[in-house]
Amino acid sequence: MNLLPQGYVRSTDVQNALSFFPTPFYLYDEQLLRNTIKQLAQFIKNHLIQVRYAMKANSNKAILQIADQEGLHFDASSLEEVQRAVLAGIHPSRILLTSQQTPTQSALVKLKFFMNQGLIFNACSLGQLRQISLVAKDKQHPLFCRIHPGLGSGESPTRDTGSFYSCFGIHSEDIPTAVELIHKNNLYVKGVHLHIGSGGEPEIWKDTVLKGLDLIKNYFQQAVILNLGGGFKIARMPGETTANLKELISYACQKITLFSKISKRDIHLEIEPGAFIIANAGYLVTTVIELKSTGSKGFRFVLLNAGMDANPRPLLYGSQHPFYIIRERGILIYSDYHKYKSTFHPLAVVGKCCETGDSQTLDQLGRVVPRTMISPEAGDTFVIGGCGAYCSAMAMSGYNTSLEIPEILLRKNRSLLCIRKPQSLKQLIENEISLPEFKPEPKNKDELWLKDELYKNIYEQVS
Ligand SMILES: *Cc1c(COP(=O)(O)O)cnc(C)c1O
Hints:
The chain is an alpha/beta fold. It is built from 13 helices and 18 strands.
């Protein structure tokens, strides 16, 4: 019983990482990540579909490179993400840009540059369609159109991107105007895109298949691709369910093949999983710094050296993540995945930010809900699972002057590679500018108004 069950990372591997890197840090399991992608790659082979990694889930350079090496294409959420992917070595022709930004004049210059090399722009509004028509030229610059699906589903209301209170995509009532714009400007709409949300119900995803094919049939005569977005449910906790991707994809392919036959049009499927690919390949490794309580009528708290600043998902969504406690020499003493014959306590797990919401045990209303588990001791290593997606990417560094924590890759041969260094205090504040009349600030080391050695030290570190 030495396994952290969601992945291949063993507690001895965590222990090994601890001898090189102080907590807190993220630990990513390369083997598990590659295996997950390889499973998806099977679909690519069998069904001629394109899998795009939704890079907003985790956009670390090394992670992008692994996805690239495994043959995935990419879904970028902003022009900055496109540039980030290109800087990681990914060719623009492997990227689809699906963004809420309507390109400005200067963005259009960059977009045109990337589109000349094959970047596909997904027009998500009438404004975007108008702007992109200034640079897109028929077949040389194929476009996608993101259509508001009119039906949505997400793990929380904030991640449902298909209902009427979410503004993503061109609304069905605006499609005639969009079609007019497309014809007038001689645009080539190669793909139709629908995305219902993150962690949504598989049955609702299925409904988008027919919806998308209807759109292709009625409005987008040149389209050859149906992109149904991502958002596939992934279980992080025991008792949660993972979407049956095989079943969903074969359902979609069946409907598409039938449509292709009847309409004599060759349509291909694209999907864009983010969390599904990387959520469970990442861990947040922290240390228990203290145990506290709010008395006999209150809670018992486990205080960690990282919390909402490194994993904001519980605060944002009320998400549950699995916990593992490792004592010295890599002994796993608790895991949410194992039934122990031991004394359990209801414990609230909290981070170090000055906010009651800095907790890893919250419900969807932001209330602390203790989890029943074995009580750790100060100094124990506390590992939070399911932290590969939307953790580092959404980290709240800067709040309480928390610094971005390092990202460590556990390689296939079980060696460790730091793929992002810890942020320094200097990096956090280097763009701030002092009041010009603020006298006490020393201009150089000799002017230090505190002659203290410690002060000099800190001053040198941050300037
Ligand atoms: C966020 C997003 C995805 C990925 O969602 P996951 O829940 O990580 O799978 C895919 N496509 C689009 C357009 C998105 O905005």
